């Protein structure tokens, strides 16, 4: 049981390049999330998926797209990377969004540097 | 936009009890309060969750007053390994969607 896994661990991009961050969970959770964490800052929600086939915007969705490929996988895509998107990206999952008692389980993060 | 508020940083010494308070003025009736711990280069990890009064587990206690506008995470007899950032999380609901907002986090430093 690996929990939440993320790939890649680290990535360097040039401005304007695109890439997809991958996330998978093996806990049979319904809900998945993408956060970004800037140096010395808290986590900000980018997008979330309450259940397979649905996605919704979080606090900072601009510049990103997501795909809930199936129940296990939730990807985050940067179509045209900008230096302002340099951050650490965390994926998380929980049994269900909208449940007050939900506990989110986090992956190890992807460090992205945009030059 | 409702949000949580925590102290930016706190210092303490090994063996002391540490209390970190989070303000959440707009918490809804059915919302729970959850605390996470984050070490450098790792994702946040669940510590404790509560709705009202007091909750205790093997690592911490959570105190929530009757008005639920704040909560206090209590770490008994801290050690150097408790040095981390602690986040308070409350689930806020807006119309038919839920917005998930982490607090800014409290950076706790424990000294020998």
Described by strand count, sense and barrel closure, the largest sheet of chain A is: 7 strands, mixed
Write the element-wise H/E pattern of chain B from the N-terminal end onward. Answer: EEEEEEEEEE
Radius of gyration of chain B: 14 Å
SSE pattern of chain A, N- to C-terminal: EEEEEEEEEEE
Q: Helix proportion of residues of chain A, in percent? A: under 10%
Report the radius of gyration of chain A as a whole number of Å: 13 Å
Q: Quaternary status of these chains?
A: heterodimer
Separation of termini of chain A? 36 Å
Mean pLDDT reading of chain A:
91
Percent strand of chain A equals over 45%
Give the number of helices of chain A. 0
Number of strands of chain A: 11
Low-confidence stretches of chain B: none
Q: Which pair of chains forms the biggest interface, and how many residues does each contribute?
A: A-B, 27 and 26 residues
Give a brief rundown of this model:
The complex is a heterodimer of chains A (115) and B (112). Chain A has 115 residues and is mainly beta.
Question: What would you say this structure looks like, in words?
Answer:
The complex is a heterodimer of chains A (115) and B (112). Chain A is 0% helix and 48% strand. Chain A is mostly beta strands and 115 residues long. In chain A, the strands form two sheets. In chain A, strands 2, 4, 5, 6, 9, 10 and 11 form a seven-stranded mixed sheet that branches. Chain B contains no helices and ten strands. The N and C termini of chain B lie far apart (40 Å). The interface between A and B is medium-sized, with 27 and 26 residues.
């Amino acid at each position: 049981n690996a929990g939440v896994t993320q790939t890649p661990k680290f990535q360097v991009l040039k401005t304007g390049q695109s890439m997809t961050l991958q996330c998978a969970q093996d806990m049979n959770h319904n809900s998945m999330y993408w956060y970004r964490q800037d140096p010395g800052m808290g986590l900000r929600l980018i997008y979330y998926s309450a259940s397979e086939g649905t996605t919704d915007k979080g606090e900072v969705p601009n510049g990103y797209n997501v795909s809930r490929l199936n129940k296990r996988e939730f990807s985050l895509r940067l179509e045209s990377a900008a230096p302002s998107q340099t951050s650490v990206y965390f994926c998380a999952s929980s049994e269900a969004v909208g449940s007050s008692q939900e506990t989110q389980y986090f992956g190890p993060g992807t460090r992205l540097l945009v030059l | 936009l409702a949000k949580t508020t925590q102290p930016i940083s706190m210092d303490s010494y090994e063996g002391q009890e540490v209390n970190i308070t989070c303000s959440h003025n707009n918490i809804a009736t059915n919302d729970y309060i959850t605390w996470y711990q984050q070490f450098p280069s790792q994702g946040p990890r669940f510590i404790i969750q509560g709705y009202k009064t007091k909750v205790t587990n093997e690592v911490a206690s959570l105190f929530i007053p009757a008005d639920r506008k704040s909560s206090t995470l209590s770490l008994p007899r801290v050690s150097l390994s408790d040095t981390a950032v602690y986040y308070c999380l409350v689930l806020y609901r807006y119309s038919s969607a839920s917005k998930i907002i982490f607090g800014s986090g409290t950076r706790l430093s424990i000294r020998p």
